[in-house]
């Protein structure tokens, strides 16, 4: 008998662990619908891998993948909430259209993904410079650091974003 192919392996993994994973996510999210979506997305991630490896600890692996999706979910919620709060503070006539809101949220999500993995201070420096338009000396003064530290953080953030966008091999 030949070994199962990747699709059969994931089908078996799904049959054995989907219910458990969805229950784990439901406890984290307090919402069965979102838990079902993220459980589904977890298995889609596995299907999209070039060569899924044989898993010795399938639940640990599924938990790791699902936790990453959960963090992305919470980050998106936080971005949406911050954006909606900002919109609520504006006069209604200056509010963007629903299409513009969707594009803005997608852009904010992409920025968050690009900055993922940066240390918090480097991320804050980058955002102050690029989004708030603050100067390096102003950032240094407000954060109680030197301008040189701000410059190095900007170099690090810019290199990180470049690698995230274009990969390290290009």
List the helices and strands and how they pair.
Layout: H1 6-29, H2 32-48, H3 58-88, H4 98-115, H5 120-130, H6 136-143, H7 147-166
How many structural units, i.e. domains?
Answer: 2
Q: Kindly, what is the distance between the CA atoms of the first and last residues, rounded to a whole number of angstroms? A: 44 Å
The overall pLDDT, averaged over residues, is: 83
Low-confidence stretches: none
Q: State the helical fraction.
A: over 70%
Which class best fits the helix and strand makeup?
mainly alpha
Strand content: under 5%
Run of helices and strands? HHHHHHH
Radius of gyration using CA atoms only: 21 Å
Overall spatial form:
globular
Number of helices: 7
Largest sheet at a glance?
A: none
Number of DSSP strands?
0
Domain RNA polymerase sigma factor 70 region 4 type: 109-161
GO molecular function: DNA binding; sigma factor activity
Domain RNA polymerase sigma-70 region: 13-78
Keywords: Sigma factor, Transcription, Transcription regulation
What does this structure look like?
It is a single chain. With 170 residues, the chain is an all-alpha fold. It folds into 2 domains: 1-96, no CATH class; 117-170, Arc Repressor Mutant, subunit A, CATH 1.10.10. Helix content is 76%, strand content 0%. The chain contains 7 helices and no strands. The chain has helices spanning 6-29, 32-48, 58-88, 98-115, 120-130, 136-143, 147-166. Helix 1 (6-29) packs antiparallel against helix 2 (32-48), helix 1 (6-29) crosses helix 3 and helix 6 crosses helix 7. The longest helix is centred in the middle third of the chain and has 31 residues, at 58-88. 11% of the residues are buried.
């Amino acid at each position: 008998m030949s070994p199962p192919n990747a699709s059969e392996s994931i089908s078996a993994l799904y049959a054995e662990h989907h219910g458990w994973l969805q229950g784990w996510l439901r406890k984290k999210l307090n919402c069965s619908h979102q838990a079902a979506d993220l459980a589904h997305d977890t298995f889609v991630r596995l299907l999209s891998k070039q060569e899924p490896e044989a898993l010795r600890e399938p639940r640990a692996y599924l938990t790791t993948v699902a936790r990453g999706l959960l963090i992305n979910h919470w980050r998106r919620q936080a971005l949406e909430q911050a954006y909606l709060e900002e919109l609520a503070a504006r006069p209604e006539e200056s509010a963007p259209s629903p299409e513009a809101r969707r594009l803005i949220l997608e852009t904010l999500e992409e920025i968050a993904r690009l900055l993922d993995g940066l240390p918090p201070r480097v991320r804050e420096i980058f955002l102050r410079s690029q989004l708030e338009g603050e100067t390096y000396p102003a950032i240094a003064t407000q954060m109680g650091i030197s301008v040189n530290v701000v410059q190095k953080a900007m170099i690090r953030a810019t290199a990180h974003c470049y690698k995230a966008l274009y990969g390290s091999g290009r």
